[in-house]
Amino acid sequence: MAKKIVTEMSFLDHLEELRWLLVRSTIAIIIMAIATYFISDYLFDVIIFGPTRPTFFTYVFFCDLAHQLGVDSICITDLSFVIQNTEMEGQVNIFVWMCILCGFILSFPYILWEIWRFISPALYHNEKKNARLFIVVSSLLFFLGVLFGYFIIIPMSINFVATFTISDVVVNQFTIDSYIGLVKTSVLAGGLFFELPIIIYFLTALGLVTPQILRQYWKYAVIAILIIAAIVTPPDVVSQTIVALPMLLIYEISILISKLVYKKQKD
């Protein structure tokens, strides 16, 4: 049986460790945010506002795919909307918060390492050896989720809201806050959702979740994922499938991980 290394710490000691975890993580985010400042022109012009242009990679890819499938309806040649700033400090606030967001994304592996250091005293000795694997896998899943949100969720959402109209009288003029809100929500939600297998691993290890429970709620998860895919994509099956399949795959992987952990605990 694996030995568990336990270090006796008081409640205040745990709070002190948590405080320093937050301090060091915040410093890491600030450092990466400052580094982002030096590429801010590329960050905003090419990355953040890239999905507003018909030449964006996702639109071109879907158009080529549509031609191969004999479907022309999802080719995008024009995105008729304007992004405007309506507050005096609006662009300054957006600049600062987007640099902080990028700082958080870039420093995510370090934050995971800090979290591992915080929880490691409660783990078994053999579990502590998995620190490197935990950080690598969790970081990879997070970055894949961020890319999924950026290349799939954001352009699909923009295409939908830009082409949807109730009348020709109405002109789409989106505020920069609403656009940046879409970007932040999509990349963060994508990154955190792709962490689901890791979360399920720990919840199963703690006995809070079982593979039976996950399988029992599988149909509800499928319905929820399909609804999300229908909301953020144009009304065509191809786009909805492209969004829904990776999310369903992540859920299935989470069930598989839960089974492996549950079986190991029973042995």
From TrEMBL:
GO molecular function per UniProt: proton motive force dependent protein transmembrane transporter activity
Membrane topology value: Multi-pass membrane protein
TM regions (residue ranges): 21-39, 94-113, 133-154, 187-210, 217-235, 241-262
Record key words, sorted: Cell membrane, Membrane, Protein transport, Translocation, Transmembrane, Transmembrane helix, Transport
Keyword Protein transport: yes
Signal peptide (UniProt feature, chain positions): none
InterPro entries: TatC
Subcellular localization, as worded in the UniProt entry: Cell membrane; Membrane
Entry GO terms, CC: TAT protein transport complex
Subunit note: Forms a complex with TatA.
Protein family per UniProt: Belongs to the TatC family.
Name of the protein in its database record: Sec-independent protein translocase protein TatC
Organism listed in the record: Flavobacterium agrisoli
